[in-house]
Amino acid sequence: xxxxxxxxxxxxxxxxxxxxxxxxxxxxxxxxxxxxxxxxxxxxxxxxxxxxxxxxxxxxxxxxxxxxxxxxxxxxxxxxxxxxxxxxxxxxxxxxxxxxxxxxxxxxxxxxxxxxxxxxxxxxxxxxxxxxxxxxxxxxxxxxxxxxxxxxxxxxxxxxxxxxxxxxxxxxxxxxxxxxxxxxxxx
Length: 187
Hints:
With 187 residues, the protein is of the alpha/beta class.
């Protein structure tokens, strides 16, 4: 009998083949797509400018995390941001995430995720951006970050970041069984 897989796990599995293909055959790339712009807001940032700013924020986010630079890292998040980690229990408000990160960063231990592909999309008036990116990590291998940025006082801020580990479809049943067994043990 097949297991019912949660939406989170299912979505991770769907993109695993693409993730493997990107890591083995395609050079690093960044894609940007604006939504339909029928009601263009004249105050909206031009697409290329918005693209550059969002890319800078995301690249800086990863660099500051790798450098364990607490203040600069968290300055890139909005006041009401949420960070969702790889464990089902890791859904942190920005203050809870700061409390988690502070002991690590204060000892100079950050985390290094190197982006090698990214897709960015914008709302019609370009005050909201959402993205997905594939990242390399020494211990986890290929991971995926997805999230939302909002324009706050003309600065892009990360409002949500979600880190996942893509599971190849061929391994999905086995991994799902391991997760189910792990949860039954109360771990």
